[in-house]
Specification:
The protein folds into four domains: 275 residues, Alpha/Beta hydrolase fold, catalytic domain (Rossmann fold, 3-Layer(aba) Sandwich); 99 residues, Sandwich (Immunoglobulin-like); 89 residues, no CATH class; 175 residues, no CATH class. Helix content is 42%, strand content 15%. A seven-stranded mixed β-sheet has the order 1-3-2-4-5-6-7, sandwiched between helices. The protein has a six-stranded mixed β-sheet with strand order 9-10-17-16-12-14, with no helix packed on it. Helix 11 packs across helix 12, helix 13 packs parallel to helix 15 and helix 18 packs antiparallel against helix 19. Its main location: endoplasmic reticulum.
Length: 668
């Protein structure tokens, strides 16, 4: 009997303690036993401020009542009247159902999902900076929401620099375990001690694994509620950064009910905002440290053909930027018209380049962004010394010629060129890649297509037409901003190709006349001045001893490769600025050295393209047949050669003049 009475008294004592705990928990958020307030903005300026503060109440709390003291003062009112924070902060109160005994309460996971569903429609996520403030279980709801989303959304991670937690039970609370025996509330089961709480264990693991986490600042209670410490110090400070702050004379209930501006809770929150949020440039901020600024115009000085300049975003938010317009096709600025994104507190590079035909001392472009205060940035590109700029292009051309010659020489020595000797397409692909690499690191920051455009531009100036055409083909899909430059270069290469073809036809006709015993006078008929103008020549800026020396070495190496011999003749004519008769003889020499391949029927077939140095008349390797001591140039029967000669002589004057005008245009 006595034991039964003792056991009965113990059960009654525990039951009374549980009921007392529930009453205390319910009293935390009087007057309502259940939260009936919808989430919503408490204070929102128009236009909106830079920082959104999102308040999330705890278990059995209410959307706004949790944060309001008995005298009507609240975090919301204190923030609005704060001289430093008021002009910076808008406040949003989030709430969820948490009933003591009735159904419908949300646990941590469910409340976090609800929080996520409200933030975007409410416009919270549109703010440059978002700070979360949580009380009790509300802090766990915030952590669960962020753990679910920060790694999935880098933009959200950049916007949340800080969360402030008031007694968030990160290791659970003993009182929740007792209350759960009576209330059977799923939210209470989430607050049991972490050792027996899989929800808190999972939250702890997920939070620790986040790649980028905001600062967590914590405050904790120092007083008991009817002799009970609702959330212990260790539980309230587990994931905090920096020293947690004790709120003196505050229990779990009064902890978040500031009644004056000097209340410790408000001083803690305002101090965290002033120290860790206000100094940040929360929105995106565009800076161009390598540009000189004069009012609304930025100036960039270009002393070499390509220069890289820093584009910095010193804010935390992301921004998009692109080139709106530019003054000339000779100017390339990367990126082009396609918007690019730059993360907060990071640096990207603008590449400013001038093509080889640039002849102005000043260019301009507009840099645009999606920032309201920096929609357009006017940039003036100054070229103080065009001669210096062209020397830069010349150095690039010499480097390209030297690297191409070395590639061919080394390939011949190692045997790597054997498979490419008779495959001009594959060989030109390799040579184009060597040329692009030779331009160096200055163009490596450009998109791939623009790198190829600049490579083709320089190769075309050097009259390496076929390699240039191969490089230009790789620029397919270039930004629409640079398509006019690519189209212009394409026309230039067509004109060069026509000039080379015209000279080669003259050489073939000369050979045909030799075979037929006809005089050469008819081949050289025409206006000497106009005929001389059509002969390919390199531009004046490239006419130097260094380039001539480099081009001669390249001609020598190209002439040793079957599929490059005719191109070697074209390069030699242009680099040496040969008169028409001499240019024709160089192409004649290349044609006479042209090997003839046997066809399936045994008839000789021309191996094209043809160009071979005078020192290598006979090709190596079996299966090649020769007609007489020297090859017949194009390998065609004599009658066909005569017909071809007559066709050349009968070209209409109109076509001749059109070709001459086209070539003249691109040689200026």
């Amino acid at each position: 009997m006595m034991r039964t009475a003792v056991a009965l008294r113990r059960r009654r004592w525990w039951r009374a303690l549980i009921v007392a705990c529930l009453v205390l928990l319910a009293a935390c958020h009087r007057p309502a036993p259940a939260n009936s307030e919808d989430p919503g903005w408490v204070e929102r300026a128009d236009p909106r401020h830079k920082i959104a503060l999102v308040f999330v109440h705890g278990i059995f709390g209410s959307t706004r009542g949790t944060w309001t003291s008995g005298n009507g003062e609240s975090f919301f009112r204190l923030l609005k009247s704060d001289a430093r924070l008021g002009p910076q902060v808008d406040t949003y109160a989030f709430g969820f159902s948490s009933n003591i005994m009735a159904g419908g309460s949300l646990d941590i996971r469910e409340a976090a999902n609800k929080l996520q569903s409200y933030l975007q429609p409410s416009g919270v996520l549109d703010y440059p900076a978002i700070v979360f403030v949580g009380h009790s279980m509300g802090g766990l709801v915030i952590m669960r929401y962020l753990a679910n989303n920060l790694d999935k959304s880098p933009e959200l991670a950049e916007k949340v620099p800080l969360i402030v937690l008031f007694s968030a039970p990160m290791e659970g609370a003993q009182v929740a375990q007792l209350a759960d025996l009576v209330a059977r509330n799923p939210a209470l089961s989430n607050l049991r001690p972490v050792d027996s709480n899989d929800v808190l264990k999972q939250l702890s693991d997920d939070w620790a694994s986040l790649a980028a986490k905001p600062r967590v600042s914590c405050a904790y209670e120092t007083a008991n509620v009817s002799g009970v410490r609702i959330v212990q110090w260790g539980s309230a400070t587990r994931v905090c950064i920096g020293r947690p702050v004790a709120i003196d004379n505050a229990d779990h209930i009064s902890l978040v009910k500031p009644d004056r501006a000097m209340h410790p809770s408000y001083m803690f929150l305002s101090g965290q905002l002033i120290e860790h949020v206000l100094p940040l440039q929360m929105g995106a901020r565009l800076e161009l440290p390598d540009f000189q600024r004069n009012k609304n115009v930025y100036t960039f000085t270009l002393t070499t053909p390509e220069e890289n300049a820093r584009l910095m975003n010193t804010g935390r938010g992301r921004m998009k930027y692109w080139i709106g317009e530019k003054s000339s096709k000779a100017l390339l600025v990367s990126p082009g018209a396609t918007p690019q994104q730059i993360k907060g507190e990071s640096t990207e590079w603008l590449t400013v380049a001038l093509r080889v035909d640039a002849d102005q001392a000043s260019y301009a472009f507009t840099l645009q962004s999606d920032l309201p205060s920096h929609q357009k940035v006017q940039v003036q590109v100054l070229v103080p010394d065009l001669g210096q700029l062209r020397q830069g292009h010349q150095r690039n051309a010499v480097k390209v010629a030297a690297d191409l010659a070395n590639f061919l020489r080394d390939g011949a020595r190692t045997g790597d060129l054997a498979a490419l000797q008779n495959d001009p397409q594959r060989l030109n692909e390799q040579l184009a890649m060597v040329a692009r690499k030779a331009l160096g690191e200055r163009i490596e920051r450009l998109p791939n297509a623009e790198q190829w455009l600049l490579t083709a531009d320089l190769l075309a100036a050097a009259n390496l037409t076929n390699i240039a055409a191969t490089a230009l083909a790789h620029s397919a899909g270039i930004d629409t901003f640079y398509q006019p430059a690519a189209q212009e270069l394409h026309k230039k290469l067509l004109a060069q190709g026509r000039a080379d073809s015209w000279l080669r036809e003259r050489a073939d006709t000369l050979i045909a006349h030799d075979i037929a015993g006809r005089p050469h006078d008819m081949v050289y008929a025409g206006d000497p001045v106009q005929l001389a103008l059509i002969t390919p020549v390199i531009p004046a800026w490239l006419d130097s001893d260094d380039y001539r020396q480099a081009s001669r070495k390249l001609v020598h190496e190209m002439s040793a490769v079957t599929s490059l011999r005719r191109d070697a003749a074209s390069l030699e004519v242009a680099a040496e600025k040969m008169p028409l008769e001499m240019a024709t003889m160089v192409h004649k020499r290349a044609a006479l050295a042209q090997p003839v391949l046997p066809t399936a029927t045994g008839a000789p077939k021309m191996f094209a393209p043809s160009a071979i140095s005078a020192g290598q008349v006979r090709p190596d390797g079996p299966g090649l047949e020769w007609q007489g001591e020297m090859p017949l140039g194009t390998g065609l029967p004599q009658q066909e050669m005569l017909q071809k000669s007559q066709k050349v002589e009968q070209l209409e004057n109109e076509k001749k003049l059109k070709d001459i005008r086209d070539v003249q245009k691109w040689q200026k």
